[in-house]
Amino acid sequence: MNENKKTLKKTPTGYVAFFIVPAIALLCCFLLVPVLLSFGFSFMNFNMLQPEAAFFSGLENYKRLFTDPTFYKTLRNTIYFTLVVVVYQDSLAFVLALLVRKNIKGVGIFRAMYFTPLVTSITVVSILWTFIYNPNPTQGLLNALRVKAGFQPSMFLHDPATAMNSIIFMSGWHSAGYHMMILLAGLQAIPEELYEAAEIDGAGPVQQFFHVTLPGVKNVLIFVVQVTMISAMKLFTQPYVMTQGGPKESTKTLTYYIYQQGFQFRNIGYASAISVLFFIIVVTLSLTLKRIIRQK
């Protein structure tokens, strides 16, 4: 430890700055500057097609935001997607991690099968699942199976009642493998001696799970839940590729609405106001979740 401190003291300041300054510059350029610009634009009436006509509008964009029914609908859609995905995806990942942890035959193939979807672009996966969800039984795999099983074809992405759930199912399938690997690393870090001691004390598999496995993987599980929540709140690609926010705005999320206002309608001021509020919501939820978990 002392040797490391001496090494750090001997390191020239210029050498350290050579590596730190570019990182800080990139962080400011691609994170801090856009955030500040968005905050500034949120107080302006600014249209990309008429930049010379931009003017300061004060809180008008925010007043419009809180009276916009589409904003509240996209917020509900985003919250619903986030809550369901956190439970469904992380539960699936945890179960898969528990199965993969067992030293059974073919576990390597099983692990690769569930991790492979993640290395495929979400855009490509979304296009693939659009074909799978095709309402025509002669073209859509799921409806072909439903018809063979004696059921009526489902509209999936074309029905407001099932569109969001269809996207949720696909999203969980795509990302569960990544979280499975993280949870698997946490499970493998639990000393086997703890299980042996619990078994000697007469603890069965269920008791070992609740008193050894869960406490041992708690911090990793918390991390996975936080990552899933933040990622789910930013949902954009799947609705954009698969449904374009429809049908009847049932899959339109906050990020899709921001894109629509900013790049389709060229209303940068209003899009920036939504972005600022969205940023506040995500940060608030993250800090609240962190505080609740710490208290427990």
Automatic annotation (TrEMBL):
GO CC list: plasma membrane
ABC transmembrane type-1 domain boundaries: 75-289
Topology within the bilayer: Multi-pass membrane protein
Major subcellular location class: membrane
Transmembrane segments: 12-41, 79-100, 112-132, 268-289
Alphabetic keyword roster: Cell membrane, Membrane, Transmembrane, Transmembrane helix, Transport
Pfam families named among the record's database cross-references: BPD_transp_1
Localization (cell): Cell membrane
Highest taxon above the source species: Bacteria
Coiled-coil portions: none
Entries under InterPro entries matching the protein: ABC_transporter_permease, MetI-like, MetI-like_sf
Signal sequence annotation: none
Gene Ontology BP annotations: transmembrane transport
Family designation: Belongs to the binding-protein-dependent transport system permease family.
Name of the protein in question: Transmembrane permease MsmF
Organism: Treponema socranskii subsp. socranskii VPI DR56BR1116 = ATCC 35536
